[in-house]
Specification:
Elements lengths: L11 H5 L7 H24 L1 E7 L10 E8 L13 E5 L9 E8 L4 E5 L3 E7 L4 E5 L9 H4 L2 E2 L3 E10 L3 E2 L11
Antiparallel strand pairs: 1-2, 2-9, 3-4, 3-9, 4-7, 5-6, 7-8, 9-10
Length: 182
C-alpha cells in the first residue's frame, strides 16, 4: 500500500505538531542561561553604560531638540572623573520626580569661581562649594540650570554623556584645553 494514502499512520503535518515534553535537564539548563543573561544585562545597564533619549532645546546645537539617543557612562557616577567641559546626566535637584534626569555641561567644579548668570546678571561671581558642580546648557536662553537652582551636588550625577548613537553617530570629547602660561 502506498504510504501517502495510508490511514493507519499519522501524516507528516500532524507529526509536526505533536507534543514532546522537554527533558528536565534541558529546561533547567535553559532557565539558568536565561537568568544569567538577565543578570548580566541588569549589571551592564546599571553599573557600566546605558542609553537614553533627549528632549528639549537646552543643549542645542550639540544635541537636537527631540530624538537623539545618547550613551551614558556610569563609570562616572557621583561625579567620579568628570571635569569642566564634560556633559553629564544627573537627577534634577528641584523637580525630583521619579527618573527626572537632565543633561547639562559642567562649567565649574568645587572651589572654582563662575559667573552666576552671564545673561541676566553679568559680573556676579559665585564660588562652587565643595561636593558640588555648576552646570549650564549650551543654549543659555532656553536652559533651566544652575543659574536657576544653584550648584548641583556631585552625588546627583548619574553618568557622563560620551556619545550620540542616533541620528548621527558622534563621540563627545572635552574640547577644553588648559591655559598655557607664558
Amino acid at each position: 500500500m502506498n504510504r501517502l494514502f495510508s490511514t493507519s499512520s499519522k501524516s507528516r503535518f500532524a507529526r509536526l505538531f505533536e507534543f514532546h515534553p522537554p527533558e528536565p535537564r534541558a529546561v533547567a539548563r535553559f532557565t539558568v542561561r536565561a537568568l544569567q543573561g538577565c543578570l548580566f544585562t541588569h549589571l551592564f545597564w546599571e553599573h557600566f553604560y546605558s542609553v537614553g533619549s533627549t528632549v528639549g532645546a537646552s543643549m542645542l546645537p550639540t544635541m537636537n531638540i527631540l530624538g537623539d539617543y545618547i550613551v551614558i557612562s556610569k563609570l562616572h557616577i557621583r561625579g567620579r572623573g568628570v571635569e569642566v567641559g564634560d556633559m553629564v546626566s544627573y537627577l534634577h535637584p528641584v523637580h525630583a520626580g521619579p527618573g527626572e534626569r537632565v543633561v547639562k555641561r559642567i562649567i565649574g567644579m568645587p572651589g572654582d569661581f563662575v559667573v552666576a548668570d552671564p545673561v541676566g546678571a553679568p559680573g556676579k561671581m559665585v564660588q562652587v562649594p565643595e561636593g558640588h558642580c555648576w552646570t549650564t546648557g549650551d543654549n543659555l536662553p532656553f536652559s533651566y540650570d544652575s543659574r536657576n537652582y544653584g550648584p548641583v551636588p556631585l552625588a546627583l550625577i548619574r553618568g557622563k554623556v560620551i556619545a550620540r548613537l542616533y541620528p548621527n553617530r558622534r563621540w563627545f570629547e572635552n574640547a577644553l584645553k588648559p591655559v598655557e602660561e607664558y
